[in-house]
Specification:
The protein is an alpha+beta fold and 374 residues long. It has ten helices and twelve strands. Among the domains are: 132 residues; 118 residues, Sandwich (Jelly Rolls). Strands 3, 7, 8, 9, 10 and 12 form a six-stranded antiparallel beta sheet that branches. A two-stranded antiparallel sheet has the order 1-2. The chain has a two-stranded antiparallel ribbon with strand order 4-5. Helix 6 packs across helix 9. The longest helix has 41 residues.
């Protein structure tokens, strides 16, 4: 009879309990494993944060979103007074330069009164914003608002003390009737000053709409600066590439000839005062061409063709670029079917002595230059 291998579950080792070693009446527990230290911060996180900050500085997206949210959360009374000030100023600007002739003469007096209204609501907005006025109170007269206003803010909007005195006399102490009764010459002179003051005062308000306009203007300026830099870099790269090609041009000073002659420079020149817009000009013929003799077989990998600028660039198309070793057999290495001012044909480097550019129809042919690059 075989012995049973089964064990009592109670006698089985408990894997989930810490092991203990009997030492008299005390059980010595195995110390727990040390905690795993947190993984070090990824270095790329700092770079990502920096890149996001740079993008935000240019795009201003978060700031604009925050300004839009604040504009929506603006208390009703402040929003109402700001919109009234802005609407009056817009009406003043429109009345100053109306789209049609006014039947009753110049609109100087209405413009001044609208500026006065805009200043009134701008000062009323400032009082609500500063908490100096209870929500249920009415703003009062413009003269009262002017007296309670921050005089330093008024001086900044007027630009100087003399201008502030003129604006105060005409607006804070006058009325629409006194403005209308001013001589036309005084009204005309006062209009730009009043518009400038009302505009500066409105822009100085700590309003989300003004913040939003400022942020969008900043974004436009910064992105515009980036575009200018990129454009300058592109232009610089093009200029540098052109200069590099000119230095590497193996066709410079090499003899050339054409299928016919109607004008141009004398070979081997590709620039002359007689014809500054082209260095050769063929007659109208079938498949006209210009051919450059490099003097000996050399390695060639590209040909740059500069078309005539002042006239008829379409005469050069369609065209092919061909190479020859023996001046008898030519092999095509490039083709162009669209009008161009500058075109580069690239191909695998190969030996050739003659380079020919040929039009594939009956036409005239004339180029400003042909460069051959190794």
């Amino acid at each position: 009879m075989t012995a049973s291998t089964e064990t009592d579950p109670a006698d089985a080792p408990r894997a989930l309990e810490p092991e203990a070693t009997a030492q008299g009446d005390v059980a010595a527990e195995v110390p727990p494993a040390p905690a795993v230290p947190p993984a070090p911060a990824v270095a790329g996180a700092a770079r990502t944060g920096f890149a996001a900050a740079v993008v935000e500085w240019f795009v201003r997206h978060r700031s604009i979103v925050r300004a839009v949210r604040e504009a929506k959360e603006l208390p009703p009374l402040r929003r109402e007074r700001f919109e009234r000030a802005r609407s009056a100023l817009r009406a003043a600007e429109a009345a100053r330069e109306p789209s049609g002739m006014l039947e009753n003469g110049p609109a100087f007096a209405p413009v001044l009164e609208l500026c006065r209204e805009s200043v009134y609501w701008a000062l009323a907005y400032r009082e609500v914003q500063s908490g100096a006025e209870a929500v249920t109170d009415t703003p009062g007269e413009l003269s009262e608002l002017w007296a309670r206003a921050d005089q330093a803010a008024l001086l900044r909007a007027a630009a100087d003390a003399e201008g502030l005195a003129i604006i105060e006399h005409a607006m804070a102490r006058g009325s629409f009737a006194t403005l209308a009764e001013l001589p036309e010459g005084e009204q005309r002179a006062l209009v730009p000053r009043a518009l400038g003051f009302a505009t500066a005062l409105l822009r100085s308000l700590d309003a989300p709409v003004n913040t939003l306009l400022r942020l969008r203007a900043e974004r436009a300026r910064r992105l515009g600066a980036v575009l200018v830099v990129l454009f300058a870099a592109c232009v610089g790269a093009v200029v540098a590439r052109g200069a590099s090609e000119e230095r590497r041009d193996i066709a410079r000073g090499k003899a050339w000839k054409t299928s016919s002659k109607m004008g141009g420079c004398a070979s081997p020149r590709q620039s002359c005062g007689e014809t500054p817009m082209y260095f050769f000009h063929t007659v109208e013929e079938l498949n006209p061409w210009v051919e450059i003799d490099l003097g000996a077989p050399v390695s060639v990998s590209a040909v740059r063709i500069l078309n005539r600028k002042d006239c008829c660039p379409d005469r050069a198309i369609p065209l092919v670029v061909e190479l020859s070793d023996d001046h008898v057999k030519y092999r095509e290495v490039g083709r162009r079917t669209k009008t161009f001012m500058s075109h580069r044909v690239d191909f695998p480097t190969q030996k050739a002595r003659w380079v020919r550019v040929r039009a594939l129809r009956k036409t005239w042919l004339h180029f400003r230059g042909v460069m051959v690059l190794p």
